[in-house]
Fold:
Amino acid sequence: MTGTLVLAGTPIGDVQDAPPRLAEELAAADVVAAEDTRRLRRLTQALGVAPRGRVVSYFEGNESARTPELVEELLSGARVLLVTDAGMPSVSDPGYRLVAAAVERDVRVTAVPGPSAVLTALALSGLPVDRFCFEGFLPRKAGERLSRLRDVAGERRTLVYFEAPHRLDDTLAAMAEAFGPERRAAVCRELTKTYEEVRRGGLGELAAWAAQGVRGEITVVVEGAPERGPDEIGPEELVRRVRVREEAGERRKEAIAAVAAEAGVPKREVFDAVVAAKHTGAAGADGATGEPGSAGSAR
Structure:
C-alpha cells in the first residue's frame, strides 16, 4: 500500500481562518513538508497542536532535490502533509513538482481546502468573477513584463496577479500602458490582516497612487478586455494605427502589440490584418502603376 499526499491550505493572514482539519492533519502526518519550518512552528503553536511526524523544509531552493525523497516516503506508505507559508500549495508556491511526481507513481493525492489570496481578492474586487485566469507573478525585467502584459491585452477574462510591494508601481504603470489607463482594477493589500485594504480604480489612477509607496502582500485583479460590439474596429483601422506608429519610429512588432492593446483584440488579429494589407497593397500597386515603390505598396 502506498501512502497519501495531503495538500493543506494555511491562513493567508488571520490564523482563525485555518480549516479545522488542518490541526488534525498536522498531528497525524508521518512527514510534514513545510515551505518555512519557522513559520510552521508559529502556526502549530497558534493552533495548539504538536506534529508527531518528521518535519522537513520544502521550498523553491530544495524542491527538486527533496521531491524524490518525499516520493519514497509516500511509496513506503507514509502520509505526507505539504504546507506553504500561506494559501494553497502549488498555487505560485512549492508543490507542483511533488504532486506531479506522486501522480506519476499512482500515489493518492488529496487536499485540505483552505484560504486562497486569489479567490479572496477576486471576490472583493468588484470585477466580473464568472470567468477569470490566474497569471501569478510577472517577470521582473521591464521589457519582459510589458511583453507578457501585451500578450494578454485582448483577454476577456478577469486577470489575477501577485506582485511584490516594491514593484507594484512599475507593474501598474506597465499595465496601464498595455491595457489602457482606464481599464478597471483592484489592488488588494494585506488580505484578512489588520491593515487590509482594497483600492479600486483605473490602472492609471492606481499607478499614480502606488508611486507613493505601498507595503504588504499584494494581489492585483484586472478587468478583462471589453467585448466588442457592432462598432468594433475593422482591419483597415487596425492597419492604419500600426502605420501611424511605425511612421513615428516604433518597430512593427511593438506597434502591433500596442494597437492590439488599444483595440482590445488579440495580437494575431492585428498581425493578420497587416499581412493582408501588405499583400493587397502590393497587388494594387503593381496593377495600377507597376512600381513597387508607389504609395500603395507595402513596407
